[in-house]
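Convert to structure. Protein one:
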Amino acid sequence: MLYIKNKSAIIYILLIIIIFIFAIILRSVVYLNMKPLWHDEVPIALTVIDNGFDSILKNTNLQKAPPLFWMLTKFFGSLGDYNELSLRFFPFLCSIISVFVFYFFTTEVLDKKLSIVISNILFAVNYRLIYYAQELKQYSSDVLFVCTALIFFNRMVNKPFNKKNSIICLLFSSIIIMFSLPSFFVIVGFILYKMFIFIKKGKNDFWSCSESDNKIKINIQLKYFLLFNIIFAGISLLYFNEFFADLYNMEIMYLSEYWESGFLDFFNFFLILKSLFTYFFYPNATFVFELILFSIGFIYFFFDKKHITKLMLFSFLVIAVASNLKWYPLYERVALYLIPAIVTAIAKPFDILKHGSLKISILFFLFILSIPMYLFPQYYIKFSHKNIFTAFDGRTTLDFIKSKHNPNQKILINIASFGIFEYYKRQLNFDSVTYEIFDYRKINKDEFFKYLDTNKNGQTWIYYVFSGKENEERIWLDEWRNENKDL
């Protein structure tokens, strides 16, 4: 029996090591492919290039991200002359570290080795997590720091809330929100759960009432907890006040339709779940089987006695409220930090059932149906393709123009491509070039054609690598090119 147990442990350790290696390889390959920066990344790139450490936080445009994300992106970018690899190094580093942190997270949520292995496989091969390992955005760091926050506060729940631990919690909370905005939801979830514990334990444990003077005497732990809440509330108000004001004025006001589908209410609850699961588990075609497994695991969380599952449930509540109040949308990439909790919930049912039973066979069948694409080698081979994520190649396009360009020629740039042009103009040392920006939003189709006609003199290049999501500019340009095939 001892031999069998040791053998089982060895197999488990080997499986986890293989998962780690596989996850790191997948993320490293796509990162080293050095995909050209695209429209969503260049505002961050240009901001960190054009601003010093002291002024970088004042020039964040629409790309709202935590302060330490900006600072570390600036630091690593400066080490590599702000090329694609150096700018994306911090998200890549976070994606690698999150593989290990997620494992420790699953060991605290799940009981059985089978469940832990299943959840770690899902995390390792997840398309979205692999993609954002090479994207100059904060979503990989959100995944890492939300996981870290859940582990940290799980360890703190059972510890006495004395002076030392209240200071540790306050320092940790104040620092981690500078790395990741969604970690705030976990902190508030911890506060609510701790309040729930205080109330549940109730009188005599944390407060008492003196019959002689009718005064309530509060336990020292509760005093420190209240003090922690007051100080952290003050820090949060100072930190988030300007952030959410800017976010609302710039993004919510101008992109309200874009974010609207991520704001939760009673009527769109299922639609948001469908959207999130379809996005998180791409390219698997159906979301139904993942949702079934998640729902079973989520229900089990209510009956689980572990503090971390209760902490997750309270955090889910805070996230739902924030979405309902239109503070933070439950929308695709900005909700990427939910993947660790969702994947763990999907694996949770395997914790409960006995091996060899009919029920666990049904669960495995549902599990296989939920991830069919992960079973094919082609899914993994395509990550080695250099252009797997390249939809807008501003680097190659401008390099080609540079190789053919002469000083008498000018470049017409559509406004949505200008940031990409500006970044690669600097990277390719293509500074002595005459260019002009055209904005489709200010002209109609006839004016657009007339504008292009005046420039078809053999001395003009058109630099067009990205267009806005909802415009006819691309159709107009294709139509104009078809009418001018001799050019």
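Protein two, convert as well:
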Amino acid sequence: MKKATCIILMITLCLNLSFPVFATQAISDETSITVSDTVRIDVKTFSSPAGSTRSATSSNTNFEIRQYNDDELMQIVTGSFGGAHLIVTDYENNEIVSQETILVSSRVNHHSTLFTWTESIGQPYSIAAASSLGYMICNYSEVLDEGVIFHVYSELTDTRTDDYVVNGYVGDTISVLAALLGAYLGSFIPATSLIALVEIVAVGKGVEIVGGAIADLLTIEVEVIESYYDLYARNLSLGTYSDSFEGVARRVTEAGDYYDEWYYEGFTPYNWESESLGYVFWYQFYDYSFPGIERYV
């Protein structure tokens, strides 16, 4: 039972790891997974450049999953991250015996709600619309003859809630389940988190794999809460503001209350105490070498 779940998630992991968020040109990546003594699955992705953190799921990233039984091709599933359809082609004796197009939305129910907090505004920022996170106190700079202090602010710009219900039917192959998960979830939920979430639900429902296909229904209800932030700093020595830097905090929860984790991309109020953020703030104001951060207050 656990092995069945892990098989599905291993493929989803491959899909996730093969997704190059900051690719500069189209690439191809291929991974082979030995599921058992008789079953092997090959996953290949073809990816084009992606956009920002808000548009990663709309990038043109296609995948192909090939499932083999006793080294004989059994099925090919093709689709894309954020795509509308999966094409499932079944083989027997290396010949096509059937082909089916699955509408992803018929198997994955998705509801999204977006609430916009503020409109884009210029500098200087409205302090009333932002929250003070604290201070970055830089190490002493010999060139400037002082330790620069950055007052760091955060502004919540958007909050998006996405609800997903992934429906696995009796008879679905491992490849079909992996493709359904990858199409909607693989590009923005970390693979390790997806593994933990799905394993908890599948084990609780006693899902088994028989002949390369699931022998029972598998329903996973996931809520993803995305909060988008702009972080910026006021240089107390100069009295001027930096540009803003975007980040997103994602809370991933499961309807059975078995799973509740946060994940961060870019700079957010939860991970702002970092040398990397201090680095980008520093070079907004100075051409001198960044001295590092002494402490956060």
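The first strand starts at residue 27 and ends at 34. The mean pLDDT is 78.
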